[in-house]
Amino acid sequence: WPRTAGRDGGAVTIGGADVRDLVAEHGTPLYVVDEEDFRSRCRDYREAYADGDVHYAGKAFLCRETARWVMQEGLGLDVCSGGELAVALSVGFPPERITMHGNNKSLAELERAVEAGVGHIVADSFEEIARLGFLADRHGRRPRVMIRVTVGVEAHTHEFIATAHDDQKFGFSLGSGAAAEAARRVLALPQLELVGLHSHIGSQITDTAGFEVAARRLATLLVQIKEEHGVVLPELDLGGGYGIPYVEGDTAPDVKVIADGLREIVARVAESAGLPVPRLTVEPGRSIAGRAGVTLYEVGTIKDVEGLRTYVSVDGGMSDNIRTALYGAEYTARLASRESDAEPMLSRLVGKHCESGDMVVRDLWLPADLATGDLVAVAGTGAYCRSLANNYNYLPKPAVVAVRDGESRVIVRRETEEDLLRGQL
Ligand code: LLP
């Protein structure tokens, strides 16, 4: 739940706003983002990495307004497509604070990044290094390049969101020598400035050991590059991936503790080789946006499947939150429009889509007097819900409202039927 969540007169409040008022004004399903929670997480990171850089990973949830918050809080931004870059540039995000990612950036996307003068481009393949050399010549620019290194860490998270084992599509593998070869190739192109190395081991990781192993391996490669080429790279980007609690019993690593640990590891490796300590960057997405977001749904049909459980249907589902269906993600939800002391009933919160995998929360306890028209709030939906939203079954994407000091305002408007038909001939 967001830091400002509470209860007032029985109903849940977020950022001082009563969910019943939010729904009366904006409808359901509704994504509610607690602005202060989002911003305070930005500040926590800024403080923990005061001597480094924090780049919010826009894929978690980027819109023009969240880009402004990130900009105002002094963070940089990680984008991984031309579209994300366009959102950032549209609000005047300083390009030098943007990092461009992607395992298959198109020539047009790379060109846009080079032209805009983004602060870092993270090279992910040999083809891309060649393309960057060509674009640098064409535009008379000297892009600042990092090399994405696959450090060979098995992160303990869902297979689809683990990214540092060898058998996947991202980066240059460390073990095979591809990463060292990538450094050689970038250094051979004087029109490119190699500024550092990058690693991202996966997402929703709560065991910090993986981050530490990755930092040590990356710092070791930095030392090897110095030995081989005499070049001291000034920066290490350790990616994102810091987990958040979704259900009771989940733990989340502490931002400050991780920062201190990583800083120490990198400093030890660099100093023992007589190198200056590189500047650290991290790219948190979920751990900034995730807890700030809550989804509000209205309860529709309630079906008691004798002896098993009660299926509670809401007016959204896998189109506004696909994470349960895609990763088996778990969420916490509660009756939000009133309090109830009725007995808890074993429930499954399901959507309105035409498939049985369409679940929002697989198993939860809801009060037995739950009724059609009640509001249910699902916590922890600020990251990777709106950004993964889709129009399956032609459901319009819900609005996103920001709440702060009891006031709400739409930051992304609800899609309409007209939006759904747009572009069709
Ligand atoms: N940096 C890079 C290069 C990344 O690929 C990612 C996430 C991040 C930073 C931010 O990671 P975070 O701090 O948010 O964990 N759709 C999945 C998550 C995919 C993450 C992709 N990359 C989910 O809903 O769990």
From TrEMBL:
The keyword Transcription does not apply. Pyridoxal 5'-phosphate binds at G241, E283, P284, G285, R286, Y384. Residues 37-289 form the Orn/DAP/Arg decarboxylase 2 N-terminal domain. It catalyses: meso-2,6-diaminopimelate + H(+) = L-lysine + CO2. The modification N6-(pyridoxal phosphate)lysine is found at K59. Residues 34-382 form the Orn/DAP/Arg decarboxylase 2 C-terminal domain. CDD domains: PLPDE_III_DapDC (cd06828). Pfam families: Orn_Arg_deC_N, Orn_DAP_Arg_deC. Substrate binds at R286, R323, Y327, E355, Y384. PROSITE patterns: ODR_DC_2_2. Keywords: Amino-acid biosynthesis, Decarboxylase, Lyase, Lysine biosynthesis, Pyridoxal phosphate. It comes from the Bacteria. Pathway: Amino-acid biosynthesis; L-lysine biosynthesis via DAP pathway; L-lysine from DL-2,6-diaminopimelate: step 1/1. Its EC number is 4.1.1.20. Its cofactor is pyridoxal 5'-phosphate. Homodimer. Belongs to the Orn/Lys/Arg decarboxylase class-II family. LysA subfamily. Specifically catalyzes the decarboxylation of meso-diaminopimelate (meso-DAP) to L-lysine. This is Diaminopimelate decarboxylase.
